[in-house]
Amino acid sequence: MRSVIRYLQPFLSGLLFGAGLLVSGMTNPSKVQGFLDIGGRWDPSLAMVMGGAICVALPLFQWILRHERKPRPHGPIDGRLIVGSMLFGVGWGLSGYCPGPALVVAGSGSLSAMEYVLAMAVGMLVASRFGAFEASRAGVFSK
């Protein structure tokens, strides 16, 4: 029974997340681009969705932080983080897709979303290869 729950819980969480994206309209790229168009016809509905998500998630995050057995290490804010954040933002703004909604829409057969997901996968592969190369040069993997 535990093995069923182990696989059912992430599936149901993903299903709920995808349904929330669909209901809120966040799978529509023009909705996201309307939010980012502050000089034109600005659409504040994305801010409302983000605010609602924060209100739901914040109590759980606070509970987790209070009950963690050991602190989570985090890395410094460095050039890689800043460049990665900028690339994410530019991709989001140009395409209107964030990774979660893109996966939901790609599942429906949208060619533009499938192209976005493919580009995202290639970017992840390049980043992981670059990170492994950089770590090996720094001697992280050496004995």
Any overview of this molecule?
- This protein is an all-alpha fold and 143 residues long.
- The protein has one domain (2-138).
- It has helices spanning 2-24, 29-36, 45-67, 79-95, 99-106, 111-138.
- The longest helix has 28 residues, at 111-138.
- The chain is globular and about 45 Å long.
Low-confidence sequence ranges: none
Helix-strand pattern? HHHHHH
The overall strand count is 0
β-strand percent reads under 5%
Q: What would you report as the Rg, rounded to the nearest angstrom?
A: 19 Å
Structural class: mainly alpha
Helical amount among residues, as a percent range? over 70%
Number of helices: 6
Short description:
The protein is mostly helical and 143 residues long. Helix content is 75%, strand content 0%.
Secondary-structure map:
Layout: H1 2-24, H2 29-36, H3 45-67, H4 79-95, H5 99-106, H6 111-138
Helix pairs in contact: 2-4, 5-6
Keywords:
single chain, 143 residues, mainly alpha, 0% strand
